[in-house]
């Protein structure tokens, strides 16, 4: 069965303290691995798409990487405005996205 | 360029009632997907519409139905509402693999 698992469930960082979020997936025929940011009560905001192992994408303080079984979202020198839930989703052989439960990130000043 | 829009923003219904949620896709997108997100969970796929046909469906009962119009906008209908249907309903539009989400409709069933 296709599955996406994210860890940790919650992460508290001090401003400037870098860390990584993990997304492991078991999906038949992976067509893309997607990262989203979601603020409370709002829809997910698209961040990155990764298509093949070894691929990396960067945007400001965020960098996403992909292996054959996992993806990582690296956050470098985070700021309080980076606080949000980060969702990982896998697109498989079908057209739907399979989401993990997310990592709730809190960055304290 | 307008993104994905959804209406209404919030909705309160009583058990057993029926509800219709609406979605307008991002300009140039032809595919609309609907997701249900319970509190503290990731979005769960309901179904996807392309060329006015349901192309893919998740594990949701027949009480959940949808429609796509010639202008690519879409509706989600839920009949015989249950308390467990309370959630954030998200619409996503796409042209290729990347799906862009709207702000969602918060449905509360009492």
Measured by DSSP, the beta-strand proportion of chain B falls in over 45%
Which parts of chain B are unreliable, with pLDDT below 50 for 5 consecutive residues or more? none
Number of E strands of chain A? 11
Structural Rg of chain A: 13 Å
**H/E order of the elements of chain B?**
EEEEEEEEEEE
Number of helices of chain B: 0
Structural class of chain B: mainly beta
Q: For the residues shown, what is the average pLDDT of chain B?
A: 96
Choose one word for the global shape of chain B.
globular
Cα-based radius of gyration of chain B, to the nearest Å: 13 Å
How many beta-strand segments of chain B?
A: 11
Q: Percent helix among the residues of chain A? A: under 10%
Number of helices of chain A: 0
Protein architecture, described:
The complex is a heterodimer of chains A (109) and B (110). Chain A has 109 residues and is mainly beta. In chain A, 0% of the residues lie in helices and 58% in strands. In chain A, the strands form two sheets. In chain A, strands 2, 4, 5, 9, 10 and 11 form a six-stranded mixed beta sheet that branches. Chain A is globular, with a radius of gyration of 13 Å. By secondary structure, chain B is mainly beta. Chain B has strands at residues 5-7, 10-13, 19-24, 31-37, 44-50, 53-57, 64-68, 74-78, 87-94, 99-101, 105-109. Chains A and B meet through β4, β5, β9 and β10 of A and β4, β5, β9 and β10 of B.
């Amino acid at each position: 069965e296709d599955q996406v698992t994210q860890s940790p469930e919650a992460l508290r960082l001090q401003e400037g303290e870098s860390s990584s979020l993990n997304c492991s997936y078991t999906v038949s025929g992976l067509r893309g691995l997607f990262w989203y940011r979601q603020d409370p009560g709002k829809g997910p905001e698209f961040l990155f798409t990764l298509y093949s192992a070894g691929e990396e994408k960067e945007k400001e303080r965020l960098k996403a990487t992909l292996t054959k079984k996992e993806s990582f979202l690296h956050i470098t020198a985070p700021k309080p405005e980076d606080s949000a839930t980060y969702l990982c989703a896998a697109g498989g052989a079908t057209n739907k996205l399979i989401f993990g439960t997310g990592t709730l990130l809190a960055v304290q000043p | 360029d307008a993104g994905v829009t959804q209406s209404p923003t919030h909705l309160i219904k009583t058990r057993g009632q029926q509800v219709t949620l609406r979605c307008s896709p991002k300009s140039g997108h032809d595919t609309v997907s609907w997701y249900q997100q319970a509190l503290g969970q990731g979005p769960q796929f309901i179904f996807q519409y392309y060329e006015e046909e349901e192309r893919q469906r998740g594990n949701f009962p027949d009480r959940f139905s949808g429609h796509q119009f010639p202008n690519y906008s879409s509706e989600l209908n839920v009949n015989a509402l249950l308390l467990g249907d309370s959630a954030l309903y998200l619409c996503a539009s796409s042209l290729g693999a990347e799906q862009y989400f709207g702000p969602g409709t918060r449905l509360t069933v009492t």
